[in-house]
Amino acid sequence: QVQLVESGGGLAQPGGSLRLSCVASGFTFSNYAMGWYRQAPGKERALVARISSGSSTRYADSIKGRFTIARDNAKNTLYLQMNSLKPEDTARYYCGKGYDASYDSGFDSWGQGTQVTVSS
Questions:
Q1: In angstroms, how far is CA 42 from the centroid of its own chain?
Q2: How many CB atoms lie within 10 A of CB 47?
Q3: pLDDT score for 109
Q4: Given CA atoms 118, 11, 37, 100 in this order, what sign does their dihedral have?
Q5: Nearest CA to 3 among 120, 114, 112?
């Protein structure tokens, strides 16, 4: 059974940083693309960063240059380093598992999410 458990969210000031983690289990982590989604109140869930099994990455324009997605296959863990945070980054962030090794194939499982709030 696929399990994805996110952590690392919290309150940050504008311009600050947070690092999100997602521990995966129930599948061979290294074989699958992974991604980070976010959903703000009243908005649809949006894909912000994705990484293939080979560690190629792609980012949404809204976070490009500020966020970095990475994976540690030895630890079955996905990360999202978030720098230069803005109030508009406030959302619940979800980790997603890809259908296969490519980040273009879509995602089929998600965790429960972790809340990120950016406010002074």
A1: 20
A2: 17
A3: 95
A4: positive
A5: 112
User: Helices marked H in the chain — which ranges?
Assistant: none
Q: Which residues contact 34 (CB under 8 A, 6 or more apart)?
A: 22, 24, 50, 51, 69, 71, 78, 95, 96, 97, 98
Low-confidence ranges of the chain (pLDDT < 50): none
* Cβ–Cβ under 8 Å, residues 6 and 63: no
pLDDT at residue 62, as a whole number:
93
Any bridge partners for residue 109, and if so which? 97
CB contact set of 66 (below 8 Å; sequence gap of 6+): 82, 83, 84, 85
By 3-state DSSP, what share of the chain in percent is helix, strand and coil, each rounded to 5? 10, 50, 40
Beta bridge partners of 23: 5, 77
Query: How far is it, in rounded angstroms, from Cα 79 to Cα 14?
Result: 20
Q: Which of 104, 90, 113, 102 is nearest to 43 (CA)?
A: 90
User: How much is the pLDDT for 8?
Assistant: 98
| 51 alpha-carbon distance from chain centroid | 10
